[in-house]
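SAMPLE LOG
Freezer: B-3
Tube label: C17
Construct: single chain, 69 aa
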Amino acid sequence: MEERDEPSNPIDREEEKKREIDLNTLFPKEGYDLNRLFPDEGTKRLLYELRRNKQDIERFIKSLQVEEE
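STRUCTURE (predicted):
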């Protein structure tokens, strides 16, 4: 029996659309249409995760600096 990655009903499809990543919102200062440059959903998710990881690292570094003072 094969499992599909596609949502099985219309409600799941609507939820998937809500979860679509808008790269132009994530990187507002870029002068390009990033969604057009990176149409692949896997690439969008990768860039989203990189952005989240960067924010987590920045928060961690700030917490270290506060502890040192």
